[in-house]
Amino acid sequence: MDRAALLSHLELLHAIERIVRRAQLPYAITQGFHPHMKLAFGPALSVGVASTLEYADVYLTEFVNPDVALSRLRDASPEALKVERVGYINPKEASLTASITILSYCARVHALDIDAKEIEKCFSELRKSDTLEVVQKDKVKVFNPALCIPNDAQVTKEGDSTHISFNLRISPSGSLRPEILLTTVFEQAHAHYSHLTLTRTGLYSESEEGLVPPL
Q1: The pTM is what?
Q2: Rg of the chain in Å (alpha carbons)
Q3: Please, is 75 exposed, middle or buried when counting C-beta atoms within 10 Å of its C-beta (0-12, 13-18, 19+)?
Q4: What is the reported pLDDT for 86?
Q5: Helices marked H in 77-115 — which ranges?
């Protein structure tokens, strides 16, 4: 796991701010008593969860050619947070936090003593259940599995590792944390494992055409 996965959401925001400053882009500043860079980030990652691609909105005060901006940002960013692509969006479009509703994850589990079909079966059965009660910070939260888990998981075996790919939906009432979902599935499957790594592999908006990435 890359050390970047150990960054908190706030630390990641500060890292992006430093990258934009080093790139010398004409970034906008918020108004008020504590002005700061006008920057918006997508759904927060839990500490310890890696990611293959994240998105951020940076507001500029003047136009910069996207190719020039990308070159500057790549030169200013560390390898673990390398900027991959940039683009302009309509300012009237919804924010990242409002538009992104589907999060994709892949879990890699070592020494899992159960077959892939059993894990897929437990995911499917959980989606059909009426409610899922989860204890978070000494409070009981109730989720609707059919709403939170939009489709069944895909499970594959590679040697002594099992790869579990699944999606979670963000809703106004809250979102189910992926590690809690996996714990629930493993308990239902009576599965035991020695090590697990979790990676977010995609963020999407839902449309009539299917899942659409922000950029």
Answers
A1: 0.89
A2: 19
A3: exposed
A4: 95
A5: 96-99
